[in-house]
Structures are given as C-alpha cells and as structure tokens.
Amino acid sequence: FIAEGYATAYSLNQIINAYSDNMQYSVFAAFSASNMKVLVKMFKEDKLLENKTIIICADNDQLSIAEAGASKCPYFYFDGPKTWDANDAWLHNETQAIKQFEKSYNNLIK
What is the pTM of this model? Predict the structure, then answer.
C-alpha cells in the first residue's frame, strides 16, 4: 500500500491490523500526492516487488485521486468530507473505517 502522507499511512496500517491479523502487507508514505507515482514506478522496477500488488490509498481530494489514477494502480480512498483521508476516518470512527477498508479492499482484489 502507498498512502499520500505519514498520518494516512499510519492510520491505514492501524486499520489493516484491525481488519486482519494475518494479512501480509507493507504501507509506505509518499509524503505528497505527486510522489505516489514516483514510488509506484520505483516499486515496479524493483525485482523483489515485481510480483506484488501495489494499492494506493489516496486522500479524498482532486489532486490525490488524479495522481492515484495516473499511477495505473488500483486505488481507493475513504469517503467523507473533502480532503478526508484514512487518518480522519480512523480518528472519527474506527469501526466504520475498518468496514470501509474491507469493502474497498475486497472490490479491488476481485
């Protein structure tokens, strides 16, 4: 998973841990929307990660969603007010954040 910022990455990690205690994954913080494509490119070129699925957790804003879409990777974001992200979702309602992650994740891996 690649998240836009540190807080989003941290909360996404908390959400995934609460969702499944046996899921193998890593969460990376891109530190900006434009860096998400850079990380995707870097990971796709890395032989150790060539068979891994890269999923982007974007913030709920136009720039982040546009950058996630341009990366040509599966992506999702947490529904909520404009500029909402995984951190906002986790802090607002942990149970709802886990349910929303589960729904988004299951739709992406079908």
Answer: 0.90
| Nearest-angstrom CA–CA distance, 76 and 23 | 18
pLDDT in tens, 70-82: 888 899 988 887 7
52-81 as b/e: b if 16+ CB within 10 A:
eebbbbbbbbeebbebbeebebebbbbebe
User: What does the alpha-carbon distance between residue 87 and residue 51 come to, in Å, rounded to a whole number?
Assistant: 28
Two tokens, residue 88: 């906002």
Q: SS3 for 4?
A: coil
Q: What is the CA radius of gyration of the chain?
A: 13
Distance CA 56, CA 75 (A): 4
List Cα–Cα distances, 79 to 49, 84, 87, 97, 99, in angstroms: 29, 7, 12, 9, 12
